[in-house]
Amino acid sequence: MIKTNNISHYYHKDCALKDINLEINKGQFITIIGESGSGKSTLLSILSTLLTPSNGDVTFDGVAYRDIKNIDNFRKEKIGFIFQFHYLIDYLTIKENLEIANEDATTKEIIKLLEILDIEELLNKFPNEISGGQKQRVAIARALINKPEVVFADEPTGNLDSKNSLKVFEILKELSNNGTTIIVATHDTQLAKMADKIYEVKDGQI
Amino acid sequence: MHSSIQALKANRLKTTLIYFSLTFSIVSIFLISSISYGIISMYSSMLKTDGDIIITQAKISDTFFSNVDIKLTDKINEIKDVKESSGLILGASPVEKLPIVAIYGVTKNRFKNYTLIKGTYPNKNEALVGESIYNTLENKKNIQISNKIFKISGIFKSDIGFENGGIVLNLKEAGLIFNKSASIIMVNANVNADINTLVKKLKKLNDNIDVKSTDNFVTNYNQFKIIKTSSNVISFIAFCMGLIGIISIMSITVNQRKSEFGIKRAIGISTKKIIIGIMSEGIILGIFSFISAFFISYLVLYFIKNSSHLQGYVNGEISSSLAFYILITSLSMVIVGSILPALDAAQTDPIVLIQGNKI
Predict the structure, then answer these.
(1) Which of A67, A73, A139, A168 has the most CB within a 10 Å radius?
(2) How far apart are CA A189 and CA A33, in angstroms?
(3) pLDDT at position B355, please?
(4) What is the distance between the alpha carbons of residues B316 and B312, in angstroms, rounded to a whole number?
C-alpha cells in the first residue's frame, strides 16, 4: 500500500533520515518508535504527504506522491490525521468539527462514529467543555469521518494519562482489525507493542 | 457563512477592533463625500434655479472675485430668445459674532426666488435675512454689514443652506459695499431657445465677459473641482487607513489561528475554501460596518445640518448613488484588505501541527 524507496531528508545540511526503505500493507498496525530527535516524526510527515523528502520516492498503491495532482483531495479521501495535540477548532461544536472534515457526513453517521468511540454525548458540546481524553477521541473521530484508508498518528497519547492512552491505542487496534491501515509515531514502547510491526528509528535510520 | 460568523464571535476583541477601524474609515468617507457633495449640490442648485446662462468676468477663477457691468442687462434683454436677465453680487461679511455670512446683492426681479415667511422684500437701506441666520441674530431688527446698518425687512426660507444662512440686499447697496455693479449676470431663455446659439450671441456683447450655460458652468467650475479633488484625496486616505487596519488586525488573527488553518489543510480542505472563509469573515464585517457607518453618518449630518454655528452652510446629503458607491468602496476595502491574511492562512503548512510547540 505505502512503499518508500531510498528516502532521505535533510534540514539544511543536517541529515534527519537516510535511505529509508519500508513497505506497509493494507490493514497493518505500524508503530514507529525512537527517541526525541531520532527522525520518527520526519518519517511520519513524509509518509503522510505533509513533507516532501529531499531524496527518494514514496508511493501509495503504486502512485508516487509527487505525481498526485490534487494533494488536498488525496488527503481528504485517503488519509486521516491524529496529532499529539487535538487541534479541535474551539469555536465549533464537536459535530461541526467533524463536519468541516466531511461536509457530506450526516448527523446519523457522526453519532454512529461517536458511539463507537463512546463519546456520543459530546455531539453538541464545544471543545472547551470536554476533557483531554475526550478531545483526543474527537480528534480520532475527525480522522475517521472520511473513512480513510490510512490513519497517521503523531504521538497521539503524548498529552494523555495511561488510562486514556491505552484506550486510544485500543481504538486504533480495533480500526486496524477492521481493515484501516494505522501508522503511529510514539515514544511509548509499551503501547507500541500492540502494533503488528514496530519500526525503530535511530539517528535517521531504521 | 455560519462558521465565518462563529469565527468572528470567537475572536471578539480583534473582530471589534476591525469593526471599529472599518466603521470609522467608512464614516469618514461618508462624511467627507456627502458634505462635499452637499456643498456642490447646494451651490449648483442655487445657480441652476436662477438661470439657463451665467455671465461672469472673463479669466477669473471664482465668482466671488468676478465683476461684470450690470448695464449689460439692457443689451441682453434686447436679444431674441432672452426671457429675462438678472444681476447678482456674491459677497461675504462678518455679521455680529458670525465670522462669515454670505451676502447676496440682487436685482428686484430676483426677489421672487426667496420665499418670504415674514415681512417684505427689502427697499433702500433694508435687508432680507435667511431663516437660519435670523435665528442666530441677537439684534432681530437691524443688521450691520461692513460699516452700514440695514433694517431687517423680512425673513425668507430656502432649502439651499447657503441661501437660508445668507442675507439679501438690493443690488445697488451691495455694489457699494463690495465695490462692483454685479458679480454675475444670469439669463433666462425662452422655452424653445437654443442655449448654445444664445451663448455665442451673448459672448459677442463684450470681450471682458465669459458666458456659459449653467450646466457647463457647474461642470467646469474650479471650486467644485477643488472640492471634489480634496474630497477624493481625503476619502482615499480614509480608505487606506481602513485597509491598513484590516490587514494588520486580520494578519494578527490569522497568525493566532495557524493551528486551525494547519488542521484544515491536513484534513484536505482546499486553499480556495480557506481563502473564501477568511474573505467571508471580512465581507460580513464590511457589511455590518457599512450599515453602522451609514446610520452614524446620517446622525452626524443631521446634527451638522441643524447646528446654528454652521448657519446651514455645511449640509451633507447621502444620496442613494453615494451610499451605493460607498458600499462598493467598503466591500472593496474588506476584499482587498483580507486577501493578504487569507493567502497567508491558506499557505499554512500542516507540518506545523507535527512541529507542535511552534504554533
Answers:
(1) A139
(2) 7
(3) 63
(4) 10
- C-alpha to C-alpha distance for B186 and B223, rounded to whole angstroms: 19
Report CA-CA distances (Å) from B96 to B93, B100, B136, B146, B304.
10, 10, 9, 11, 21
Mutation test of the interface with chain B: which of A17, A45, A76, A100, choosing the one with the most B Cβ atoms within 10 A? A100
Alpha helices in chain B (DSSP H): 2-10, 12-50, 72-78, 131-136, 161-164, 171-178, 195-203, 214-220, 222-256, 258-266, 271-305, 320-346, 351-354
A191 or B219, higher pLDDT? A191
| pLDDT tens for chain A, residues 1 to 206 | 899 999 999 988 888 899 999 999 999 999 999 888 888 888 999 999 989 999 999 999 989 998 998 888 899 899 999 888 888 999 999 999 999 899 889 999 999 999 988 899 999 999 999 998 899 889 999 998 988 999 999 988 888 888 888 888 998 898 899 899 999 999 888 899 999 999 999 888 88
Contact between A84 and B260 using a beta-carbon 8 Å cutoff: no
Tell me which long-range contacts B10-17 makes (C-beta under 8 A, separation of at least 24). Answer: B10/A90, B10/A91, B11/B253, B11/B256, B11/B257, B14/B249, B14/B250, B14/B252, B14/B253, B15/B285, B17/B245, B17/B249
Interface of A with B in 39-98 (CB under 8 A): 41, 44-45, 50-51, 72-77, 79-81, 83-85, 87, 89-92, 96
Contacts of B14 in chain A (CB under 8 A): none
Among the partner residues A72, A87, A100, nearest to B259 by beta-carbon distance:
A87
Integer CA distances (angstroms), A197 to B23, B140, B313, in order: 60, 103, 86
Residue with cell 469565527: B7
The CA distance from A75 to the nearest CA of chain B, in Å, is 5
Rounded Cα gap, residues B137 and B134, in angstroms: 5
The residues, ordered by sequence, that sit 6+ positions from A4 with a Cβ below 8 Å of its Cβ are A20, A21, A22, A23, A46, A47, A56, A57, A58
Count of A-B CB contacts under 8 Å: 67
In this prediction, residue B278 carries a pLDDT of: 92
Q: How far is B10 from chain A (nearest CA, A)?
A: 6
Q: From its phi and psi, is residue B265 left (phi > 0), alpha (psi between -120 and 50) or beta?
A: alpha
Query: A126 at the B interface (CB within 8 A)?
Result: no
Pairing of strands B98-106, B82-95: antiparallel
Q: Is B188 helix (H, G, I), strand (E, B) or coil?
A: strand
Q: How many CB atoms lie within 10 A of CB B244?
A: 13
Candidates A44, A75, A96; nearest CB to B267: A75
Residue B60 burial (C-beta neighbours within 10 Å; 0-12, 13-18, 19+):
middle
Per DSSP, what are the bridge partners of residue B200?
none
Nearest to A92 by CA among A122, A55, A49: A122
